[in-house]
Amino acid sequence: MPTFIHASIWRRYAHLATAILLAAGPVAATRGLAAAPAYAAPERASAHEPDPQFSLTVYPSRVDVPPGAGRHATVVHIKNGGNAAVPIQMSAAEFTQAPDGTLTFQPPGSWSATSWVHTRPQHFTLPRGRTRKVHVQITIPDRPEPGERYVGLLFKTPAVPAAGNILLQRSIAAKLFISVPGTISRHIEVGQLQAPSLSIGGAISLSLPIHNRGNIHQDYVHPHGLSARIGEQTLRFADFTVLAGSTRLVTAEWPDPPLLCLCQATISVPDGTGKTITRQVPITIVPLRETAGLLLAAAGLLLVLQASRRRHRTALARARQQGYHDALNQDDAPRHDHHDSN
Amino acid sequence: MRRFTPSAVLGACGGASLVAAGLVVMLGNGSSALGDEVNGQTQANVSVASAITLTGLTPSFTLSGLPNTTATQDKAVSYRVTTNNTLGYLVSVRADAAALTAQDPANPDTIPISDLEVKPDEGVIWSPVGNNDVDVVHSKDSPSAAGGDLLQDDYRVHIRNVRSGTYSVTLTYTAATR
Predict the structure, then answer these.
(1) What is the pLDDT of residues A201-249, one digit of tens each?
(2) Strand, helix or coil for residue A239
(3) Which segments in chain B show pLDDT lower than 50?
(4) Partner of A59 for a Cys bridge, out of A181, A286, B49, B117, CB 3.0 to 4.6 A?
């Protein structure tokens, strides 16, 4: 009995609490919505959206210095598109290229070509909205090794004291491809075109290693970029450059291959001397997933049919048996009519 | 019926000839002018340089935590890279020192820079920050979106059993075309 009293009291309190919540809900919701745009939203935006106060543009981002005299001059521009003046410190670093195309700027060494490059001015403050020319003087020493040297011009803005304990220094690079007078060697070696020999469906990735054994870079840029032919389809590789002495592993994706195919991918790579190197790879596409799905569906259908037939047979047998029993019952039933009539 | 005197006829003929000659000269000039417009095409060349822009890189951030824990900050660094370079771009980071050092000169403890790790916000693999090797945090083999690509990096630090204090280091972010 006390349990019943308790339950009824709780139920009454629960109804009361629900009523209070329903009444207060709209007020709380209105207050929340009103407060959110004023305080929470701007904080979130400033936390993850880059601050446009700082914006630096460098152009051109690459300068090809032609072979010629020992001295060459060029100009690189830097524009301050931010809202505040920016101090700029110039420096130079040689860079190397990884197979995935990323560049690593090396610290200056004793044989570094960074000593060939002099910029004027070395450091300056760039007011907001202003563009400044940086004059670059390249002086190639006597009897250098022929070929190309790769130097990055780094436009650095020193880190400023700030609230955080990890300070960030910003830097943008313009690349100099410096041709050194002498014998130019163009020598591209192409590895095997790689693709899955058997695909069970879905996108197919093609990759091709390209080694530049020469002493000058090789650009594969549209309209002279690389593309693979697979039947009637053409797969374009993204534009890329292979620096002298570097290896690139370039890839292209075949996003929508057919369901079934015994095909061959072919690629022709200009080696820079007017010749082309051709590579091929066979690709077999079997719609394994679709076939498995169809088989599974067929097996399921077969099971359903068998079960249905079994049920039908059972029902038929039961009906027959029922009919037999009914007939028996009918035969065994006492013939009252006959007796009654007698 | 009106009669013309020979001088009037001659004058009229001369005038007509002059008008005709003028017209021929004019049309001649005109046709050459038209020819310039029709056949001689005026070519407008717009020189577009390959450019790269770095916008709004976070100037600093803080990682704080207790000893023997890992302090993490998602999206600690945000910035935009804009480029029209068809080869794409890359962003790398390098520390300017081999360790995070205490701001208090009396504190000799340090946190090795390899204990500071970075990953792109959308990535899953953390890479230790180096001061000799660079970490390429973002790399793309095509131009950025017209308004720039928004890039964000997460950071974490494994805090050793060091004295309490503020340990700091400067990282250099470099954006370049590929």
Answers:
(1) 889 999 999 999 999 999 999 888 999 999 888 999 999 999 999 999 9
(2) coil
(3) 1-4, 18-19, 21-37
(4) B49
C-alpha span between A154 and B59 (Å, rounded)? 18
Question: Is A102 in the B-facing interface, judged by CB distances under 8 Å?
Answer: yes
Residue with tokens 């935009």: B80
CA atoms B9, B12, B13, B14: torsion sign: positive
3-class secondary structure for A9-30? Answer: HHHHHHHHHHHHHHHHHHHHHH
Q: Does B78 sit within 8 Å of A240, measured CB to CB?
A: no
Which among B52, B116, B141 has CB closest to A240?
Answer: B141
CATH for A45-180 is 2.60.40.10
The predicted pLDDT at position B20 comes to: 52
A46 vs chain B: nearest CA distance in angstroms? 10
- Return left, alpha or beta for A14; rule: phi > 0 is left, psi -120 to 50 is alpha, else beta: alpha
Determine the residue of chain B that is closest to A250 in CA distance: B141
* Chain B nearest CA to A174, separation (Å): 7
Interface of B with A in 42-81 (CB under 8 A): 49-64, 75-80
- Residues of B within 8 A of A107 (CB-CB) are 132
Query: What is the least distance, in Å, from the CA of A165 to any CA of chain B?
Result: 5
Task: For chain A, give percent helix, strand, coil, nearest 5.
Answer: 30, 40, 30
pLDDT at A252: 93
> How much is the pTM?
0.72
Low-confidence ranges of chain A (pLDDT < 70): 1-50, 69, 328, 331-342
Task: Give the CATH number of domain B52-177.
Answer: 2.60.40
Domain definitions of chain B by residue range = 6-33, 52-177
State residue B139's pLDDT score. Answer: 93
Distance from the Cα of B169 to chain A's closest Cα (Å) equals 5
Using the Cβ of B164 and the Cβ atoms of chain A, whether some distance falls under 8 Å is answered with: no
Assign domain A3-31+187-288 to its CATH superfamily.
Immunoglobulins (2.60.40.10)
Q: Measured between CB atoms, which of A59, A104, A169 is closest to B51?
A: A59
